[in-house]
Design brief:
CATH class: Alpha Beta
CATH topology: Pyruvate-ferredoxin Oxidoreductase, domain 3
CATH superfamily: Pyruvate-ferredoxin oxidoreductase, PFOR, domain III
Strand content: 15-25%
Largest sheet: 7 strands, mixed
Amino acid sequence: MDLGKVIIVVSKTLVEIVFHGRGGQGAVTAANLLVAAALNDGNKGVQAFPFFGAERRGAPVRAFARIADEEIHLRSEIYTPDIVIVLDESIMDVIDITSGLKKGGKLLINTRRKPNELSFSKTFKVATVDATAIALHHEILVGGIPVVNTPILGAVPRILDSVTLQSIQKVITKKWRIELAKRNVAATQDAFEQTEVNF
């Protein structure tokens, strides 16, 4: 046996997700809420963690989530995601959001554009939703700026079978006081219904 080799067995159901956003948009909270919902839906292995850098409002930030039907032993950053979620489409001007995305991978983007209007829609599966407009409509704001993390989460069940909208709404209800929770739950419902996909 070659002791110099390390073998990592990865669950066949493991889904790795990268969130791209800007400071203040709630990317880290979105990752945490998503894995809490996944756990509620019976997934036995979940992880959520941020990439720490210059954490100032408006600066590009990343967060990561892993979901599987068994315990997850990986502890590394995610380099080859199955899904990329973009909370702010201006990020695409400075970051290659498709870098490392697996063949047949999925992108969920907060934009007014339709999936087929994006250049990479011929290569990857793309879903789009105007999460910013939904956040504004439901007055999900911090300092007058729309926070799009819960609307974008409402779109996730359209591209990921292992998490349900009902579980996302349940964890939101537990996290915030009644009135704020109601607005966020309504935003997830609107996003779920308004998401457009090209697959």
